[in-house]
Amino acid sequence: MKKKHNSQLKVIDAFKEQGIEIEIFNLDVSTKTSQEAADAVNCDIKQIAKSIVFFEGIQNKLIQIFVSGPNRVNLKSFKNQTNLSIEKADADYVRESTGFAIGGVAPLGHKNEPLYFFDNTLVDFNEVWCAAGTPNSLFKLKTKDLLKVTEAKILLSLIHISEPTRRTPIS
């Protein structure tokens, strides 16, 4: 068993504080993309709750959206539902704001707490897989627990299906 990385310990501790025990799987393969993650844990790509980080400039807010593996965020739909204009965060902003590298952004344990939003297609699953603080680690938890601890707002028609050949980072 590989030793836990400091960023993984932050994730474990943050979930413990919420009364949820998680088991992090350190893998010998990359889990940066949704397909890589799904292949690594042998689950449906739709069960990968990838974390996509955005920046909202007017209110200076960190935004984290959980999106099902094959899906992408539709910015127009997001703005219509939230009244927030967002732009994709670059790698430096992600690292500075969350404490995690792109490909390993976990739901909890951030340097700065984000506003959370949730792709409604993830609600179809009892359990989802999330990044665990590094680009080669994942953990599984109940979807209802992820919603509870993040207090994420569920958005309808937030997504559009990406091309099957694309590799979408799970941040």
Textual characterization of the structure:
With 171 residues, this protein is α+β, with helices and mostly antiparallel strands. The protein is 26% helix and 26% strand. It has helices spanning 6-17, 34-41, 75-82, 91-98, 143-150; strands at residues 25-26, 49-56, 61-68, 71-73, 87-88, 115-119, 127-131, 137-142, 153-155, 159-161. Strand 2 (49-56) and strand 3 (61-68) form a beta hairpin. The protein is globular and about 40 Å long. The two termini are 24 Å apart.
List low-confidence stretches: 162-168
Separate helix tally: 5
Q: In angstroms, what separates the terminal alpha carbons?
A: 24 Å
As laid out across the biggest beta sheet, the strand order is 5-2-3-6-9
Major sheet attributes:
5 strands, mixed
Helical proportion, percent range: 25-40%
| Estimated radius of gyration | 15 Å
DSSP strand content: 25-35%
Class by SSE composition? alpha+beta
**Order of secondary-structure elements:** HEHEEEHEHEEEHEE
Mean pLDDT: 90
Number of strands: 10
Overall body shape? globular
Which helices and strands, and how do they pair?
Layout: H1 6-17, E1 25-26, H2 34-41, E2 49-56, E3 61-68, E4 71-73, H3 75-82, E5 87-88, H4 91-98, E6 115-119, E7 127-131, E8 137-142, H5 143-150, E9 153-155, E10 159-161
Parallel strand pairs: 3-6, 6-9
Antiparallel strand pairs: 1-8, 2-3, 2-5, 4-10, 7-8
